[in-house]
Design goal:
With about 350 residues, the chain is of the alpha+beta class. Helices cover about 40% and strands about 20% of the residues. The termini are far apart.
Length: about 350
């Protein structure tokens, strides 16, 4: 119990990033200390600036950052992170997307090509799928890239989005402590694994944020005939992103459901966890229920006339083009020995 309290206190400090992580710089800008789970795109979105501006201010040529690194935030950016209430000007495209596309590093790898081609700045808001769609449903984004088909279909049916296209897929995996107290290692069924975790009373960390991952997790509990409640039988709903949930699981010895891309990208920082259910790769995952497709949708310009629909439409055409689908396929292969995402719009 004491350990759980200490972990929550540590997470509270971690998530109060802008109370303790950013200070005013002498040149009128801001400095920010990188926290666990951060990426350049998430930091840029929080400070209402761009990745390229942060890279330029810090002499960075890529997207790699490390925990504890102090970054300069350009003086032109406000000191307080914001989410826009209205769409940006025509030279900016607002992309509301999932934490998995940011935490895995995919966005940092491909978006600069679109920015350069269209001479446009992309403002990324990386949140859970439910929150990304809610932002789009208020007209506060131009395009969304998410992974919960039922929520996507409702978003379109409600008149909030148009021009939905399939983009890519990966899969979900169940990770947990090295000693695997619930004995789920090697099971071919995720719902059976969830049932064993519950029967053993083993701790389970849920994102609890209405994300695509959280939606999938809920469906697996339902398939197992269970409806866990936060705080009961070892189950905790954190209300956090994938990176933060994995870090919590690593510290507390909890099981969790993760997208494979984020798991691979962060696994070196998670020494107490191992992949237990989902197979050695996306192609070797034995459970079809763990399939994880992503879709891109333009926010409806008829309902929200201020959105940048021309650029959103170009973005959809671009991300589903053969050249970018090939880049999606190649992303992560040299580092992890496999693709973190597999394209579906075009065959590379």
């Amino acid at each position: 119990m004491k350990r759980t309290i200490l972990v929550f206190l540590a997470l509270a400090l971690l998530f109060s990033t802008f109370a303790i992580g950013s200070v005013a710089a002498q040149d009128g800008g801001t400095t920010y200390t990188v926290q666990a789970g951060d990426s350049l795109y998430r930091i840029a979105a929080k400070f209402n600036t761009t990745v390229s501006a942060i890279q330029s201010a810090n002499g960075l040529t890529g997207s790699a950052i490390r925990i504890g690194q102090v970054l300069k935030i350009p003086a032109s950016a406000p000191a307080t992170p914001t989410v826009p209430n209205t769409p940006a000007d025509p030279s900016t495209l607002i992309l509301a997307t999932t934490t998995s596309t940011a935490d895995s590093g995919l966005l940092a790898a491909i978006l600069p090509y679109f920015e350069a081609r269209e001479n446009i700045k992309i403002k990324v808001i990386a949140v859970g799928t439910g929150q990304a769609l809610a932002i789009g449903a208020k007209g506060d984004a131009d395009v969304v890239l998410v992974h919960a088909r039922s929520q996507e279909d409702k978003f379109v049916a409600d008149g909030n989005g148009i021009d939905r296209r399939d983009v890519m897929y990966n899969d979900f995996v169940i990770v947990g402590p090295l000693n695997d107290p619930a004995g789920i290692g090697g099971l071919s069924s995720a719902k059976d694994a969830f049932a064993k975790i519950a029967a053993a009373g083993s701790p389970f960390a849920s994102r609890g944020d209405n994300s695509g991952t959280n939606t999938k997790e809920t469906s697996l509990w339902t398939a197992a005939g269970l409806k866990p409640k936060s705080g009961a039988n070892g189950y905790v709903a954190l209300g956090q992103g994938m990176g933060e949930t994995l870090l919590y699981s690593n510290e507390t010895g909890s099981y969790t459901l993760a997208d494979r891309g984020t798991w691979l990208a962060l696994s070196a920082k998670l020494p107490n966890l191992t992949l237990l259910v989902g197979g050695a790769s996306v192609k070797k995952n034995p459970d079809p229920a763990l399939f994880n497709p992503y879709g891109v949708i333009a926010v409806n310009p008829v309902k929200f006339p201020k959105v940048n629909y021309p650029k959103a439409k170009l973005f959809i055409e671009w991300i589903t083009s053969l050249s970018i689908q090939r880049r999606i396929y190649e992303f992560g292969r040299s580092l992890y020995g496999e693709s973190l995402f597999y394209p579906v719009a075009k065959t590379p």
